[in-house]
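Case 261 in the screening queue. Each case pairs one protein sequence with one candidate compound; here the compound is iron/sulfur cluster. For every case the pipeline is the same: read the inputs, emit a complex structure as tokens, and attach any notable structural observations.

Predict complex for case 261.
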Amino acid sequence: MTLPERKFTWPARDASAQEVLRWGFEEFGRGMAVCTSFQATGSVIVDMASKLVGDDVRVFSIDTGRLHEETYKLLSEVRRRYGITVQLLVPDAEEMGSMLTKHGPNLFYEDSARRKLCCEIRKVRPLKRRLATLDAWVTGLRRDQHGTRGRIDKVSVDEEHGGIVKLSPLADWSSERVFDYANRHGVPLHPLYAKGYPSIGCQPCTRPVSPGESARSGRWWWEDDVDKECGMHYSANGRFRREFDLLLDEILPARQPYLVK
Ligand code: SF4
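Case 261 output:
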């Protein structure tokens, strides 16, 4: 099946989060999976999805190998609470070995191109391998998270990932609405929120922020001139794209993009 050739009746632009999810399950069934990093948006979506289809929901997460210990504990709690399996995607051992040998384990602090290289090997390539097996995926992206995310659609064709369908059911939700839903429904929340982390990623690349700072300012805080994105949703471009491609070619000289294993 080639998705762009398939005829859809798209949900209304003002469809609720639950209506968007229900539409996804009806259209794609088990060809759709929820991606979560165990931040509040992902956990809210898992809660909504499990209320719609029970333990039939397919959930995956990317274990970069550098996550906070609290994230692993929350993962176990989510598994227990919803009775679901969470598929963990891990980086390719050969790609990791090559990167770590060439640049060392903390390459992300050296410059933006090396930081994006680390995100590529640990996050982006495992994600791409998984998405190549799906018809649709569900993300927790919201328009108010960061400048690059201001025009997110609730449902779109994901050209960066082979034209599968991308659902962002909470696109028009505020952070307050997410936490309000989580509190009212008893959704397990990441304990680092209570310690001043508004956005939680890998341990070495995330820190708490001061009152008044933007939520994303705690991610890769040593970078001040690049988008605060890892590449899962938006590719690097311009100068960073070229530097990053050179680095990638160095460590994966015979690379073929995103082989599905
Ligand atoms: S967030 Fe940091 S540790 Fe995690 S993949 Fe990106 S650069 Fe590497």
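Case 261 observations:
- The CA atoms of residues 40 and 145 lie 13 Å apart.
- The longest strand covers residues 32-35.
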